[in-house]
TrEMBL record:
Gene3D superfamilies in alphabetical order: 2.40.50.100, P-loop containing nucleotide triphosphate hydrolases
Keywords on record: ATP-binding, Nucleotide-binding, Sulfate transport, Translocase, Transport
Main location: membrane
Domain of life: Bacteria
Compartments (UniProt record): Cell inner membrane
Pfam families hit by this protein: ABC_tran, TOBE_2
Location of the ABC transporter domain: 3-233
Gene source species: Gloeobacter morelensis MG652769
Membrane topology listed for this record: Peripheral membrane protein
Matching InterPro entries: AAA+_ATPase, ABC_SmlMolc_Importer, ABC_transporter-like_ATP-bd, ABC_transporter-like_CS, Mo/tungstate-bd_C_term_dom, P-loop_NTPase, Sulph_transpt1, Transp-assoc_OB_typ2
The protein's name in its UniProt record: TOBE-like domain-containing protein
Length: 344
């Protein structure tokens, strides 16, 4: 189902949680709403579900204005961070719940529950109670319960947030495969960039109630439109705005950011480079993270493969030269003080 969020705003008292968002979601897409805590992701999801009413704007589901429809009328499946399974019902009864409410014939319910148990890889677990399952298994039951009624949209609010790192990673891969099988338009909230990059077709990066950028994982990672998006998606270094390296830049009104894996090192000067000194080396399995200090005292982080680091025979205090690939240049972010002065 296509979804159009048409200039939607939502305030809580004086606070604007969602600020005039316009966003179109294509049918069958798996979309991540990604952003820092408090940026309005859950509020936007709840607005789509019909759990909150917008102060202004409309929500269109499949070309129909659904703004005033209640959750039950929207045919949406919702899964929260904390699995809200019924403790006194078995797994099968939990999954069947939505169909029981709709008075679906018993035989049909039984067949559908079996189908869903297979889909979430819990065949044979129908007779267990939630307390007899692991956290990851409970979240899969919650997904089966949401899917049983064939919703047109699946909304997931940090569905794996309460689970440990390893289980999260398994469930991400599982969600991707599940989506490839059922193709239901799915929107999930996460504050974890790695999760968004790994699972989704489209990432919507949010900041302070607004959408910063929408694009595929590759577009967002390779072509961030703002310093915020670039910094939120992974580690970055801020480079000095030096004319030798960046002759095209005018004065100080620019910010130059670069990812640690887009810096390379040599032990001899040559070509455009920045002089630095190795401060610390950290061996992180297959890669090495080198912490450097530039001549002006600014810190810089460089990621190298083990092989590169061994070839350079790096050691603390060694002078090195840094070459820069793929620098991203953004207008300098005005500080709050500068904004206040401009407004005065
Ligand atoms: N019912 C409410 N009443 C008052 N303020 C609210 C309410 N719901 C959310 N907010 C505020 O709106 C802002 C956005 O909240 P929201 O839960 O959408 O953020 P989020 O991006 O999902 O954050 P998190 O990742 O921490 O859950 C927050 O500052 C929050 O305190």
């Amino acid at each position: 189902m296509s979804i159009l969020i048409d200039n939607v705003s939502k305030n809580f008292g004086d606070f604007q949680a969602v600020a005039d968002i316009r966003l179109e979601i294509q049918p069958g897409n798996l979309v991540a709403l990604l952003g820092p805590s408090g940026c309005g992701k859950s509020t936007l999801l709840r607005l789509i579900a019909g759990l909150e009413l917008p102060d202004s704007g409309q929500i269109w589901l499949e070309g129909q204005d659904a703004t005033r429809q209640r959750l039950q009328e929207r045919n949406i499946g919702f899964v929260f961070q904390h699995y809200a399974l019924f403790k006194h019902l078995t797994v099968a009864q939990n999954i069947a719940f939505g169909l029981e409410v709709r008075k679906t014939p018993k035989a049909q319910i039984k067949a559908r529950v079996e189908e869903l148990l297979g889909l979430v890889q819990l065949a044979g677990y129908g007779g267990r109670y939630p307390a007899q399952l692991s956290g990851g298994q409970r979240q899969r039951v919650a997904l089966a319960r949401a899917l049983v009624v064939e919703p047109r949209v699946l909304l997931l609010d940090e569905p794996f947030g309460a689970l440990d790192a390893r289980v999260r990673k398994d469930l991400r891969a599982w969600l991707r495969r599940l989506h490839d099988e059922v193709h239901v338009t799915t929107i999930f909230v996460t504050h974890d960039p790695e999760e968004a990059l790994e699972v989704s077709d489209t990432i919507v990066v949010m900041n302070k109630g607004r959408v910063e950028q929408v694009g595929s994982p590759v577009e967002i990672y390779d072509h961030p439109e703002s310093a915020f998006v670039m910094s939120f998606l992974g580690q970055v270094n801020t480079l000095p705005n030096t004319p030798e390296l960046f002759p095209q830049l005018s004065e100080a009104a620019r910010e130059v950011l670069v990812r640690p894996h887009d810096l390379s090192l040599s032990v001899q000067a040559g070509g455009p480079s920045l002089a630095a000194r190795v401060e610390r080396l950290m061996y992180l399995g297959w890669q090495v993270q080198a912490e450097l200090v530039l001549e002006a005292g600014q810190p810089l982080i460089v990621q190298l493969s083990r092989e590169q680091a061994d070839r350079l025979q790096l050691r603390p205090d060694q002078p090195v030269y840094v070459q820069v690939r793929n620098p991203k240049i953004f207008p300098a972010v005005a500080t709050d003080k500068q904004l206040a002065e401009a407004a005065a």
